[in-house]
Structures are given as structure tokens and as C-alpha cells.
Design a protein that fits this description.
It holds the Pfam family Acyl-CoA_dh_N. Helix content is 57%, strand content 0%. By secondary structure, the protein is an all-alpha fold. The longest helix is centred in the first third of the chain and has 28 residues.
Amino acid sequence: MALLQQINKLRLARSFSTSKIKFSEGKYPNGYNFELNETQKEIQQLARKFVKEEVIPVAAEYDKSGKYPWEIIKKAWSLGLMNGHIPSHCGGMENSIFDGCLVAEELAYGCTGIMTALEASGLGQTPVIVAGNKEQQKKYLGRLVEEPVVAAYCVTEPGAGSDVNGVKTKAVKKG
């Protein structure tokens, strides 16, 4: 539990340290500033245009067929709408959590299923970003920047499902 809390603190600190807008700037000096800077506006507009032109026209088809949206993933990747939080030393953009939320919000407007396919890769990336050394980060995260692939995150246990806080299984080294 303490490790999970530490990881969450690191993740939160990282999201604010890479943000382009400081807490104390703007109209709201005592809280987070939600005014978008020019880069954030461009990211939001790009995601909005992508959703309008590429996602909405095919969303119902993907929902009906259950087919995985690889073509959409490839297009989103080519525009930089995936993997935005990967560190810059791995070739990524190292966007803040807020920047990622701007993209996710636009994608979800078009289709929550396709948004999940695009954003769920972050579940597999986060442990490597938070706890991986530089070599591991370059090896595993660098590939996600170089080609349109997705990371996987799998966990299950009776009584916990995908709730990692509820996992009771332990690894014990013997011998």
C-alpha cells in the first residue's frame, strides 16, 4: 500500500512539473489554472478534428463488429495523439496528465470504446515510467514512440479482478 501511495505521489508530481501553466498564474492564484496555453489549444483542436473526421464516421461500425480499431490507432499514433506521456529521453513528448486529459476528453466524445483502445496502453506504460530504469524505459517505451503498437496491462485474481489494491497473491523466492 505504501508503494502504491508513493507511485501516486510521483505520478502527481510529474504531471505538475511538466505542465506549461503554473498554479499561481492567471485568474485563480489559489488553485490549478485551467486556462489552456497555445500548445494545449492546438492539441485539443487536433484531437477534435481527428475525432470528427476519423472516429465518429466509423464508431458505430466498430461497436457493431467488435473489431479492434487498428486503423484508427495507426492514424492517431501518426498524429501524436497516443503515448503523449512517454518521457522525452525515450523520444516521447512527456505531456502532463492535464494535456492527456484534453486528448482523452475529445476522443471519448467520439467513441468511448475507441478512446479506451487508444488510452489503455498507458496502463502498461505507467509502471515502466514510474519504476523502470532508463534502460528499461528506452527499451519498452521507445518502441511505442517508434511504431504504432500498444502496451499491455494484465492482472486478475479471484476476489480482485483488475483491482490491484485488492490483490492478495505474493511471490516468495525459494531456493
